[in-house]
Amino acid sequence: MVPEAPTPEPEPRGPQLPDPALRDPALPDPALVVLVGASGSGKSTWAASRFRAAEVVSSDTLRGLVGSGPHDLDASTDAFALLEHIVQARLGRTLTTVVDTLGSDAARRRRWLDLARRAGLPAVVVVLDTPASVCRSRNAARERAVPARVLTSQLASVTGTVAALADEGWDAVHHVRPAADATPPPAPARTSPPAPPRAESTPWADAPAPRGLRGVVLQLSRFPADDDLLPWVTRMAGAAEAAGLAGLALMDHLVQIPQVGRAWDPIPEPWVTLGALAAVTTRLQLGTLVTPVTFRAPGITAKAAATLSALSGGRCFVGVGAGWWDREHAAYGLGFPGARERLDALEAGIETMRALWAPGTKPYAGRLVSLPETTCYPRPVGSMPVLVGGSGERTLRIAATLGDGCNVPSGEGGLARLDRYLELVREHGRDPGEVHATVLDLPVVGRDRDDAWARVERHRGRTPAAAFAARHHAGTPAEHRERLARLVGRGVTTAFVAPVGLATPEDVLALAPLATAFG
Ligand code: CTP
Ligand code: MG
């Protein structure tokens, strides 16, 4: 692979941030990242600015552990033995590993690359292309400077290494010229959730028009176990509005599901809870993801949703599905017929709801359902999007023919089903631009890389950390924004986001960068 040519430095015009592409090449993650650069080129500084301390394996640090300090050259043999051991152990667990040495030993590079290949990890080199004069002056300013002739020979060996890299088989060779000032830009100020409006009058009367379901919708699935449910959901919804999210969705389950918590963890009835949220929000779309058709007669769901729409000024959507968890049905005395019958009921249920929401009170005689009258007041305000959850072929067909959208998992398997959904939409002569192609996304969101990995450790249970991090795309809000923005190219209009371990309004505010992922 041909190394990228280093970009010439811009004319200095007062204090400037470096070109972000130079400062921050897009790197695969997890990956092996091998640094190359002379002393003082800024390898350790660069690594510390974008990786967790545990991800960086530094020969200097290891000299400090097994010797008298980072510059104890007598400890080199022991330090490098440890370094090889750590690199092998981390790559074997498919954990990101940044090797911080001069990078000039070809045999070592070959070994690390082999280890990465065996682990199935991408492997890249980052060359710190700092001008020799800068390395020299930084070196001179150090408490324990490298002798000048040693630095000169290092600089020459880096040049030789860079030439050799092209034929070694790395996935990429990036050249980085770090900023003189490596201080990260200040974090954007956090806003606190606003005080909730009080429903003495219609609270959204003066609010900007809601933007519909396009964007990121927060899904709440886990609730605090004490008695502060209303203040908690109010604060979470207020934070979702402050973060600019498009909506808030609640799961519809009678017993907390094992994927989220324990059976005795609270899971409030969603339509009642959404009614409370209608009174304390002004812009969020509110709905379920998803209501099983087996829980309530569809007419009753239609009634609840029409009422929520009236209470919220037309901010209601309805997620529906065929239901899947036999245990909660049995526990609440509900029937749980076979899959075919449940899907029949789903089809008929959507038809019933639409008939009841349509203008007037006239009798309805449809394909699957007949009703002697369709008297449903209050009437819903504006549109009432029906999203069908599930990715089976018949479910997608129902979504494409009777629904206004689908909801599938955000992983590659789910996206393949979304492709199929959009194909069915077209087959049925509908405009893909008018449907909601939605995904359910369960990210681990951390303030920074350290926080993201602390959350992985907290929630991974017995799943290996690397697998858990990959499954949940552990990363910062900016990284999640980029990932979601890429889904637009797959036709996704909306992501229902249920962050792993979401617990506080601050966790919700941290999602603000995601709000614009869909434009
Ligand atoms: N430095 C700086 N601005 C940068 C990068 C580094 O002022 N953009 C300073 C660091 O604070 C440090 C010196 O330059 O005092 C060397 O940086 P370092 O990251 O330690 O360089 P390394 O390449 O890791 O040097 P060595 O091989 O000696 O570990
Ligand atoms: Mg260093």
Automatic annotation (TrEMBL):
Residues 1-18, 183-197 have a biased composition (Pro residues). It comes from Terrabacter aeriphilus. Residues 1-26, 178-210 are annotated as: Disordered. The keyword Oxidoreductase applies. PANTHER family: ALKANESULFONATE MONOOXYGENASE, ALKANESULFONATE MONOOXYGENASE-RELATED. The keyword Lipid biosynthesis does not apply. Keywords: Flavoprotein, FMN, Monooxygenase, Oxidoreductase. InterPro entries: Luciferase-like_dom, Luciferase-like_sf, P-loop_NTPase, SsuD_RutA_monooxygenase. Pfam families: AAA_33, Bac_luciferase. This is Luciferase-like domain-containing protein. Residues 234-488 form the Luciferase-like domain.
